[in-house]
Each structure stands twice: as structure tokens, then as C-alpha cells.
Design brief:
Blueprint lengths: L2 H34 L13 H10 L3 H18 L2 H14 L4 H15 L6 H22 L4 H15 L7 H16 L8 H8 L1 H4 L4 H7 L2 H10 L11 H21 L29 H23 L3 H11 L7 H17 L7 H20 L1 E5 L4 E5 L5 H18 L8 H17 L3 H15 L3 H6 L6 H11 L4 H21 L2 H22 L16 H13 L5 H9 L3 H21 L4 H4 L6 H28 L9
């Protein structure tokens, strides 16, 4: 070997040695910085799914080449519309990079936004959006619990894709979500207060986590399972844990369907003999007919809800209850309730990080503002499983939580985001104006005056307000100006419509036909004008993207809320007598159990107080036909999904 070759070899060895020494010295500091930024790519452990461990181990040093190829292949398949193969490859990529938040974020976004809009039916589009949500909620966040980005992305999908109006299918998403969570957690009681909502949910986190502990406290649960549910095909103790998770959710949904179609949460309110409906599993109905089982079913349902939330949805029932106490009666049938939950978890994660700055923090705080704002604007949800009709109207109970979220974000910005321009003050001013307008529209003049004084105190002397002189107006004039300036906003219009419809029906009950006609014309005129300007029909959307439900549906929603309000039974009977027959048909089966019980308890003949409207049998037959058509479409969509080899979707 020549002298020059020896020198070259020696220099190479020295360089390698220097690199090794540098790496040895630098790695601890690099790892420390990676930990601070949550960039730790942890090795597979006992909790890591087998498929992830297998892919990480198998790919070894070639992982980078494999990942790059798969990314390019996914983009190519997206252009060709091969969505089933995209889903399979996405699973592989996330298995190869389970600790990289950007990978989960990209694929969830791709499914929920890019792929979904290239499908042709509401069922297919829902399927892809649901996959994106589950990818983040049940996998991405599980593998990356400190990645604030993933909480922000999940919050945004719920808030924007479901809650807003840009997607042609947003009404379909809202209905599917409402049905899913009605089956899981039930629905609010009639005229439910915040305290009622907390008391209704409280047994869920308090329930024993283990089935054995539940049976120890309530031995009748053992009898219930052995004599009724296991023979009916709901063995929640058989097989390995993945099978038990599916069995628990299957049983919970089967019970939830029975409760849902009776509009109740309390098993004790079910009739002794339940009439079989097409949606019921008749095999479980005998369990409800024995009074000895009813307390055990109630206890079992609370246990199942707790386990399904934790095991199948990666949600914490204790945190859900804490948020109800702090922020208001969250109704998880509503997309923004989920948005609030995941934004709140994201804020909790942020507070545990070493680096408390960055755009993810600002955006997550902003989302914790937007979601209670949406609950305030349209958080009262009415979903009818018989007709699949859903309507929303403002829920003023969320005004304080919206204000609290705004104040916390402004304080956080001042403390942790030094040098960042304050982006929340304009929103805070608009909130105070909204709170004033909504309270005024709903007849809460004293509360409207409180927010009027607040906005004057904080923002009257700002240059833009001095120039426009808008705060020189009296409150009544300011309300009119703010409402008319935002009438194109669907939330403001909803408040306006429901407010006028309420006043119209009360006028009808009192015999003031002139006021009734004036209010109805005002509501119908605003409705027609909005529909003409904003409706955006598409060939496949089941409801116009920006359009409101039919006017009769809005009137039915308003009258339903009035009928369940606790005032004298004779006044409710007069309201019923003045309700148009088509609207009576929509409401009768829903309100009959409560109204007939109240009438009988008050000594009146229910059939005379609330007579069944003419044409109910044909109306029911038509609703059954439509329900069967919906189920057929969903079965067809699920069948296509199974044939495509898709994974990660649970049948609902």
C-alpha cells in the first residue's frame, strides 16, 4: 500500500472517530431538545399495536426510502381516484411513522377534505370524514399525546367540516353525528337545565371501570347478562379485549336505539310492553319488561357508556363532566361540543410543554373561543330519529363560557405570546354585541343591558367607534343596527326566526290574531328572503348547504320547545289546538307520552286535550318508508366499504 493511501485511510479513520465523539457528546443535548418539542420517536413497547411494531422493525434502514415511495404513490392514487388503496397505504405510512404528528395530520386532512369531496353520495362522504376523525382521535393522539397540532386539527374538523356550512353535506354530517351520540349518551330531557345535564351525565364517570366491580355492587347485572343479553348475542365478556370493546359498543347502541325512539334516558320510563320497531333488536326487548331488571339496566348503561368513551373514543368521562361544570351543559350530539372538548385537551397539553409559544398555541386558543361561540349561536339541538330531522337554535347558556374562553385567551396572549399582535380584542367586542343582541331578541332585556354596559365601558372610546359614533345610539337602536347588519348570518337569522315564531304562537294562544299574523309574516318574509339569497342547491346534497330546513320544520321545533315548557296543561292544550295540522303530525308521536301523562295526572282526558291529528297512519307509513330507504342507502354504503377492504370504521 502506498504512503498516500495510508495517509488517506488514517484521515478517514480520524474523521469517523471525530464524528463518533461529536455524536456521543451532542446526542444528550439533541434528545433533550427533542423531548422539549415532543419529537421523541419512541421505540415500540408493550402498548404499541403489533402492526406498528412489525412495520418499524421490518423496514429498518430502508424505512426512509419506503416512506418516500409510499407518499408519492398516495398522491398518484389520489389523482386517479383510487380511494380504497389510499386508505390502505395511509395505514402503512402511519405505521412506519407513528410518532410523527405531521403524518397523522396530513392523512386525516386528506381523508376528511380531499378524498371525501370526490365521492358521490352523502353516505360515502360521511364515511371518509369519519375515517379522518377516527384516525386522529383513536390513533394519532394515542401515539402522540403531546402533539398540540393533532388536537387542533381534530377540533377544526368538528368545528368547520361539521359545524359550519362550506361542505355541501354538512347537514347530513350533523344528522349522522346527532344519531350516533344519541345512541351513545342519550338526549337532553325536556326543558333541561345545566344542573339537570350534569346530574344526567354524572353516573357515567362514577360507574365502576371493571364489570366485576359493577356486578359486585349490583348482582342483578349478572342475571341480566346471563338471561337476556348474552343469549341475544351480546356477550361483552367473550374473547380478547378488542372483541369485548366491539361487543360493549354494540350492546350500548342496541339499548340506546330503544331509548332514542322513546325520547328518554331513564329506562324506568319505558312502557312495560315495547312495540317492536324496525330499528330495534327484538331479542333484547324482554329484558325491559321485567321491573327487576330496570335498575340493573340503568347501572349497566352507565358502565357501558364509560367504557365505550374511554376504550372506543379515547375520551375522558371525568374531563367531560368537569367541562360541563365549568363551561355549560355540553350536548355531545353537537359537533362543537366535541370541538370544545378536544380544544380544551389541547390547551391542557400546551400548558405542560416547555415552549409555550407558537402558532399552534394561538390557533388552539382561538378554537377554544370559536367552539363555545358556536354553541351559544346554535347549541340547542333538536333531532327526531323518526324523521331524521335536525334543527338548531341559539343556546344562551353558553354566553358565559364563551366570555370566559375569550378572557382566558386574551390573558394567555399577554403572558406567553409577547410580541404577537393581539388578535382577540375585535372578537371580544363582537361577542359583547352578539350577547346583547341575542338576549334582547329572546326577551332578556336586563341581561342585554349588562352586555351593553360592558361594551360601552371597554370599547366606546376606541378610534373606530368614535369615528362611526355607533355607541352614541340607545340600546334599542344599537340592537336593530347590529342585527340588520348581520342578518345574512345564519345564526342571527335563526335567533330572529325562533323568537318571532314563539311570539306568534303565544299571540295565537291569547287570541291576538293580528299580532300572530304580523309575527308570522315577519318570520316567513325573513326566511324566504334568506333562502332566495343564500340557498345553494347541489345535485347530491340532501339539504342545501346554506339553506335552512323547511319553514314547517322550524315552526315544529319552536312549538315542540314551547310544549315541553312547564306551564299549565290547559295553555299547552290551547297551543296544540292552534298548531297547523301538518306540524301536529310531525310532533304528535314525540310529545304524546309526556303530554298525555300530564293531562291524566291533572284529571283531564288526554284524547280531548291533545287529539291525534288526522292522517297520522299515512304519515307514519311514509316516515317508515323513508327510514327504510335511509337504512338501505347506509347498508349499500357500508357494503361498498367492506368490499373495498377498508379498515377503521365501526358499523353504526
Amino acid at each position: 500500500m502506498s504512503r498516500n493511501r495510508v495517509i488517506q485511510l488514517a484521515l478517514v479513520l480520524v474523521a469517523i472517530g471525530a464524528l463518533l465523539v461529536t455524536s456521543f457528546v451532542s446526542v444528550p443535548q439533541i434528545n433533550k431538545e427533542r423531548q422539549a418539542l415532543q419529537l421523541v420517536n419512541a421505540a415500540p413497547n408493550a402498548d404499541t399495536p403489533a402492526e406498528v411494531s412489525f412495520m418499524v422493525t421490518l423496514s429498518g434502514p430502508f424505512r426512509g426510502f419506503v416512506i418516500n415511495y409510499l407518499w408519492m404513490r398516495i398522491e398518484d392514487l389520489k389523482q386517479k381516484g383510487d380511494f380504497a388503496e389510499i386508505n390502505n397505504l395511509a395505514r402503512t405510512v402511519t405505521a412506519l411513522q407513528p410518532r410523527q404528528p405531521d403524518v397523522w395530520s396530513f392523512h386525516a386532512w386528506n381523508m376528511a377534505y380531499n378524498v371525501s369531496v370526490q365521492t358521490y353520495t352523502p353516505e360515502e362522504r360521511w364515511d371518509w370524514v369519519d375515517r379522518g376523525i377516527r384516525l386522529l382521535r383513536e390513533k394519532g393522539i394515542v401515539y402522540n399525546p403531546k402533539a398540540v397540532k393533532l388536537y387542533r386539527e381534530l377540533t377544526w374538523i368538528f368545528f368547520h367540516k361539521f359545524g359550519q356550512y362550506s361542505d355541501d353535506m354538512h347537514w347530513y354530517y350533523k344528522r349522522r353525528l346527532a344519531r350516533e351520540w344519541t345512541e351513545l349518551l342519550g338526549m337532553p330531557m325536556a326543558n333541561e337545565t345545566t344542573e339537570d345535564a350534569i346530574a344526567r351525565f354524572a353516573p357515567v364517570p362514577a360507574s365502576p371501570h371493571k364489570l366485576e366491580a359493577l356486578i359486585g355492587k349490583n348482582p342483578q347485572v349478572r342475571v341480566l347478562l346471563d338471561e337476556f343479553f348474552i343469549p341475544a348475542g351480546y356477550d361483552i365478556e367473550a374473547g380478547f379485549e378488542p372483541e369485548r370493546k366491539k361487543a360493549r359498543e354494540k350492546l350500548l347502541r342496541a339499548i340506546g336505539v330503544v331509548l332514542m325512539y322513546h325520547y328518554i334516558n331513564d329506562v324506568n320510563m319505558l312502557p312495560k310492553k315495547i312495540r317492536v320497531k324496525p330499528a330495534y333488536d327484538p331479542a333484547i326487548l324482554p329484558a325491559f319488561e321485567d321491573d327487576a331488571n330496570r335498575q340493573a339496566i340503568t347501572a349497566l348503561v352507565a358502565h357501558l357508556r364509560k367504557r365505550v368513551l374511554i376504550d372506543n373514543y379515547n375520551m375522558n368521562p371525568n374531563l367531560m363532566l368537569e367541562m360541563m361544570i365549568e363551561f355549560g351543559p355540553l350536548d355531545f350530539r353537537h359537533a362543537s361540543a366535541h370541538g370544545m372538548y378536544w380544544a380544551h385537551r389541547g390547551v391542557q397539553v400546551m400548558d405542560s410543554l416547555l415552549d409555550k409559544r407558537g402558532i399552534d398555541r394561538v390557533n388552539t386558543l382561538r378554537q377554544r373561543i370559536h367552539t363555545p361561540q358556536d354553541m351559544f349561536q346554535n347549541g340547542r339541538l333538536w333531532y327526531d330519529p323518526h324523521t331524521d330531522i335536525l334543527t338548531q337554535e341559539p343556546d344562551l347558556r353558553f354566553i358565559p363560557s364563551y366570555e370566559r374562553s375569550m378572557e382566558l385567551a386574551m390573558e394567555d396572549l399577554r403572558k406567553n405570546q409577547a410580541g404577537v399582535k393581539d388578535t382577540y380584542e375585535a372578537g371580544h367586542e363582537n361577542f359583547l354585541l352578539q350577547a346583547m343582541v341575542f338576549h334582547y331578541m329572546y326577551g332578556n332585556r336586563a341581561d342585554a343591558a349588562i352586555y351593553h354596559r360592558k361594551v360601552l365601558t371597554l370599547y366606546k372610546d376606541r378610534p373606530h367607534n368614535v369615528q362611526t359614533k355607533r355607541y352614541e345610539l340607545a340600546m334599542d337602536e344599537l340592537v336593530a343596527r347590529e342585527f340588520l347588519g348581520n342578518v345574512i348570518n345564519m345564526e342571527n337569522l335563526s335567533a330572529y326566526l325562533h323568537g318571532n315564531l314563539r311570539q306568534a304562537m303565544w299571540a295565537r294562544v291569547k287570541g291576538d290574531n293580528e299580532e300572530y299574523s304580523r309575527r308570522m309574516l315577519r318570520a316567513k318574509g325573513a326566511y324566504d328572503e334568506y333562502q332566495k339569497e343564500q340557498s345553494n342547491a347541489t345535485p347530491i346534497a340532501p339539504q342545501d348547504r346554506m339553506g335552512l330546513p323547511p319553514f314547517e320544520v322550524l315552526l315544529a321545533d319552536t312549538i315542540n320547545r314551547m310544549l315541553v315548557t312547564p306551564f299549565h296543561i290547559t295553555s299547552r292544550a290551547r297551543l296544540w289546538a292552534n298548531t297547523p295540522v301538518p306540524v301536529q303530525r310531525m310532533l304528535f308521536d314525540r310529545v304524546r307520552p309526556m303530554l298525555y301523562t300530564l293531562a291524566a295526572d291533572s284529571g283531564y282526558d288526554p284524547n280531548l286535550m291533545f287529539p291525534e291529528p288526522p292522517g297520522m297512519e299515512s304519515y307514519r307509513a311514509e316516515q317508515r318508508r323513508r327510514a327504510e330507504e335511509r337504512r338501505r342507502r347506509e347498508r349499500d354504503a357500508n357494503s361498498k366499504e367492506v368490499k373495498s377492504g377498508g379498515d377503521g370504521k365501526q358499523n353504526k
